[in-house]
Design goal:
The protein has about 190 residues and is mostly helical. The chain contains 10 helices and no strands. The chain has 2 domains: about 70 residues, Orthogonal Bundle (Cytochrome Bc1 Complex, Chain D, domain 2), CATH 1.10.760.10; about 80 residues, Cytochrome Bc1 Complex, Chain D, domain 2 (Orthogonal Bundle). α3 packs antiparallel against α5 and α8 packs antiparallel against α10.
């Protein structure tokens, strides 16, 4: 094959694949709550940037299939295709999470780390709480969001996790949850 034809074919192959840094069309809608590049500055909305792609995809699918409920998120995924969900998930997973401005209480964070060690959180969330596959990255997540999710798991308002978090959060009291949130935000 002539070199010019080889270069042309290579160029067409590159053109056919989306650029790694391309922004999916639907990401603009997400930015209203989750911020540009998924770097939410609003404590009620989770930071999507740097989250595992698999976890994000499963959450979108769970909202769509009514396994996870949220009055804001559920309508957003109604007509979304699996490919669009994967594209969004991959995009947000590639983004860099922002640093938190939250004033972590050192003593609460210390107690939170002790509780995390006691409940073996890193077995699923890994060291540094970076997450893996279906398990979310919780390091550096918003304080209010962490509190709400742990509280919802404890109250069984959120149950789309095969029972692991429901089981663990059932052993936590309100102070444990607050301490864990201080610890996780500071990571």
């Amino acid at each position: 094959m002539p070199a010019s034809l080889l270069l042309l074919c290579a160029g067409l192959a590159v053109q056919a694949q989306p650029a790694a840094d391309s922004v999916p069309a639907k990401a603009a809608v997400c930015a209203a709550c989750h911020g540009p590049q998924g770097q939410s500055t609003q404590a009620a909305f989770p930071i999507l940037a740097g989250q595992t792609s698999r976890y994000l995809y499963l959450q979108l699918r769970d909202y769509q299939e009514d396994r996870r409920k949220n009055e804001l998120m559920s309508p957003m995924v109604v007509g979304m295709t699996r490919d669009e969900m994967r594209e969004l998930s991959d995009y947000f997973a590639r983004q860099k999470p922002p640093r938190q401005n939250f004033a972590v209480d050192a003593e609460k964070a210390r107690l939170g780390k002790l509780k995390a060690d006691e409940t073996l959180c890193t077995m699923c969330h890994l060291g540094g709480f970076a997450g893996q596959n279906e398990v979310p990255r919780v390091a550096g997540q918003h304080y209010d969001y962490i509190i709400k999710q742990l509280t919802d798991f404890k109250a069984r308002l959120r149950t789309n996790d095969a029972g692991s978090m429901t089981s663990v959060s059932g052993t936590l009291n309100a102070q444990d949850i607050e301490n864990l949130a201080h610890y996780l935000v500071g990571l």
